[in-house]
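Hi, here's the filled form for the chain we discussed.

Project: internal
Contact: R.S.
Residues: 271
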Amino acid sequence: MKRFSFFSAVSLTLGFAFLYVPMLILIIFSFNESKLVTVWAGFSTKWYVSLLHNEAFLDAAWVTLRVAVFSSTIATVLGTMAAYVLVRQGRFAGRTLFSGMIYAPLVMPEVITGLSLLLLFIAVGVDRGIFTIVLAHTTFSMCYVSVVVSSRLATFDRSVEEAALDLGAEPFDAFRSVTLPIIAPAVISGWLLAFTLSLDDLVIASFTAGPSSTTLPIKIFSSVRLGVSPEINALSTLMIGIVTVGVISVSIMTKRSATRQARDERAAIQG
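And the returned structure, exactly as it came back:
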């Protein structure tokens, strides 16, 4: 077993410092009394109270949450269907074109995607708003869901599904009762990835959003251009806290599930 060298320790420390020291500074200054974000004037939580009364940020957060839920759900359904077709249908006419169109948003610059969608909505006469943002986010996040689900379907043991078909189940019933529960972790992972990408998106949303549908990233970006407000530090700290709690919770549940599965396997072997 290789020893953990001094060089590895230094590299790891510098890497984590580069990633997390800016976040730590942001969290500290979110409790700053002063309006100047770079001058410490004492501990205070007044910016969190002010944030809770800021209607502009609250409305933007509500729009962002609705867009993320709707777009990630639609993207998960469409991405799962696309992955099933690519993995299970084998060779068919237009497969190369179909797969290329599915994976194109992965390598397409976001500014190109946003501009093309803007021109499309203008051409068909659709007013920009929450509906257009949902369509735009579904377009670019569906490919990520398809990649995640395709990797799981590629390693799926089809004998279980074939056994259900041999027992008289219809193809859709076999998929719903056998295939879907097995690939559910991949589907959930795809939904979470699409949800995160939607929450984080700024470029595409800025092209497809209307005057009454400002998302939280757009609101933060427009506010930062006029100067960093302590309320933005407080908002960012809350978002970091939510993500941290979510990651820790998922890690604990995964560890407990693995421990429970290992215990059941040992009990089955001993029995």
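Let me know if anything looks off before we file it.
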